[in-house]
Amino acid sequence: MICKDIMNKVKFNKIATHAILIFVSLLSVFPFIWLISTSLKGNSENIFAYPPTIIPQDFTFANYTGVWDKVDFIGYFINSMIVAGGTVFLNLILSAMAGYPLARMQFKGKHFAFFSILATIMIPFQAIMLPVYLITLKLHLVDNYGEIAGFTGLILPFAVSAFGIFLMRQAFLGIPKEMEEAAIVDGCNVWQLFWKVLLPMVKPSLAVLAIFTFIGSWGEFLWPSIVLTKESMYTLPVGVNNLQGMFSSNWRFIAAGSILSTIPILIFFLCMQRYFISGENEGAVKG
User: Which of 60, 79, 107 is the last residue of a domain?
Assistant: First the structure.
């Protein structure tokens, strides 16, 4: 009888836990579902009707074709790919090169340097945005001096992050010391050891860093909206926001543009997801 009561209690706890998790998941997903629903509603349907309707009554894809035809969506997409791709590439290289000596080398001030880097996580970008903008102007890294300068000004402020350095340091700490010693015995120098031996062993962590960096860079709105002055240089977040004034707040077009701008993030995550879980675990093993 006691065992039966315990089993019933365990089942009840599991059901309650799953119910709460499902409810929280629905709350998290609902804005995205509402965005998809709005993007598929025709002009004859009131998107602000109460009670709200999730399933469109006037189903149409005209909002997607309208956004695609009336704005330079391909141009915004290419600009975002250049910025996000450059940011991801530099973050992977620089974070790995900074995390390796912090994990495997011994030098004076090592722990002070590491904790100083970690401390920068507490400083929001908005707090340093003005001096970074002034430096960008002084270096002529704005689109007034050409596309290359404009893209450089968008990428460099986010070329490396304290999170990326921390993640790569943790990944390198998880590699057995014997692997490094065996490579040195085989005649590898420091650069060969880093590039040919250790770096391939932290691919899962590199994938995790690439995912987080790509998502952050792809969705960045504040910095591009401040630095960019030419519409031809707009990234997708800035271009989608421009729809609000261009079409007198046509929320159907804005919703369709927002959905289209999230597709590359989903594709990138699906391509990298097999590394994601193992990479997250690697970053949390040692401190």
Answer: 60
Return the ∠ at Cα 38 (arms to 34 and 40), rounded to 5°.
120
Q: Tell me which H or E stretch contains 261.
A: helix 251-282
Other CB atoms closer than 10 Å to residue 212's CB: what's the count? 17
Distance, CA of 232 to CA of 228 (rounded, Å): 9
- Return d(Cα 63, Cα 254) in angstroms, integer: 9
What is the amino acid identity at position 217? Answer: S
**Statement to judge: residues 9 and 113 lie in one domain:** no
157 and 134, same structural domain?
yes
In a shared domain, residues 120 and 46: no
Which DSSP symbol is given to 236? Answer: H
What CA–CA distances, in Å, run from 228 to 126, 129, 133, 147, 245? 17, 14, 11, 10, 17
Q: Is the pTM of this model over 0.90?
A: no
Flag whether 225 is in a domain.
Answer: yes
CA distance 180 to 144: 48
Final residue in a domain of this structure, among 39, 60, 81? 60
The string of pLDDT tens digits covering residues 235-283 is 988 888 777 665 556 788 888 888 888 888 888 888 877 766 554 444 4
32 and 161, same domain (yes or no):
no
- State pLDDT tens for residues 126-158: 888 999 999 999 999 988 888 898 899 999 999
CA distances from 282 to 50, 95, 241 (A): 48, 16, 38
| Residue 51 structural domain | 2-60
Count of the separate structural domains present in the chain: 2
Pair 171, 205: CB distance under 8 Å: yes
Cα separation, 151 vs 147, in Å, equals 6
Is residue 287 one of the residues assigned to a domain? no
